[in-house]
Specification:
Layout lengths: L1 E5 L9 E8 L17 E6 L3 E5 L15 E7 L4 H5 L28 H18 L4 H9 L10 H5 L3 H12 L3 H16 L5 H8 L4 H12 L3 H8 L4
Antiparallel strand pairs: 1-2, 2-5, 3-4, 3-5
């Protein structure tokens, strides 16, 4: 499977993390890697299906679909999704609803050329972000949660929000609570470091208490052991 991502237009950088495209070969050598939680939601178009929303994910999601499919997407920044889309994300955990089911005004049939589909997704995202700009406080909250040393219970004070208000706004904007996003970001640090050292050292460098802690969270977020996940992330020779 090929996967490429690139920066969004300057006008969308407050709301969009990246644009991306993926192609699954007709006869893949092995089953595609499952989609792993990253704290984002994506507006996606897939050949043969059309446009849908992905996430927010709290565990591995099978990368299902026919071989030979083309997929393009717009990935919204952590903390931006719920506001820009104009709907709370908590009820959409681990789901892949069509955009039409969400009331978004978009017509992107599955027989479009991929480049045209991506252009339409970018246009749609631009319109949504102009109507409902990303909540800067929630985007800042997500940025702070990338710090492995942050004490999550101190987040509200840093933002000037009470605990109840923080949880309500954060759940709507992100799809789950601050503690879960903090854990997801820690897991993504492990993914970026994978293969650079022993699992014990990687666990500490990523921010886990020990290797057993890493193993528990990798099982939850990836559905496999850290060693198996590292093997899957290693390109086949």
């Amino acid at each position: 499977m090929t996967y490429v991502e690139w920066a969004p237009p300057d006008s969308l950088r407050d709301a969009v993390a990246c644009l991306w495209r993926s192609t699954v070969p007709e006869r893949p050598g092995r089953a595609p890697m499952p989609i792993l939680p990253d704290g984002c939601v994506d507006l996606i178009w897939q050949s043969g299906r059309g446009a849908f929303l992905a996430g927010p994910d709290t565990g591995p999601v099978p990368n299902a679909g026919p071989g030979g499919r083309h997929v393009v997407g717009v990935r919204l920044r952590p903390g931006a999704g719920g506001t820009v889309l104009g709907l709370p994300l908590s009820p959409l955990q681990n789901l892949r609803p069509d955009l039409s089911e969400l009331g978004l005004r978009a017509t992107l049939p599955g027989d479009l050329p991929p480049a045209v589909a991506l252009r339409e997704l970018v246009t749609l995202t631009g319109r949504l972000a102009e109507e409902r700009p990303a909540d800067p406080v929630m985007v800042e909250a997500a940025r702070l949660l990338r710090d492995p040393n942050l004490r999550v219970h101190e987040l509200g004070a840093k933002l000037g929000l009470g605990e109840r208000q923080l949880r309500r706004r954060f759940g709507a904007a992100v799809g789950y609570g601050p503690k879960t996003l903090h854990r997801v970001f820690r897991f993504r640090r492990f993914l970026r470091l994978a293969g650079e050292a022993s699992l014990g050292e990687l666990a500490v460098r990523a921010g886990y208490t020990d290797q057993a802690h890493l193993t528990r969270e990798t099982a939850e977020f990836a559905g496999m052991s850290p060693a198996a996940l590292v093997r899957r992330l290693t390109p086949q020779q």
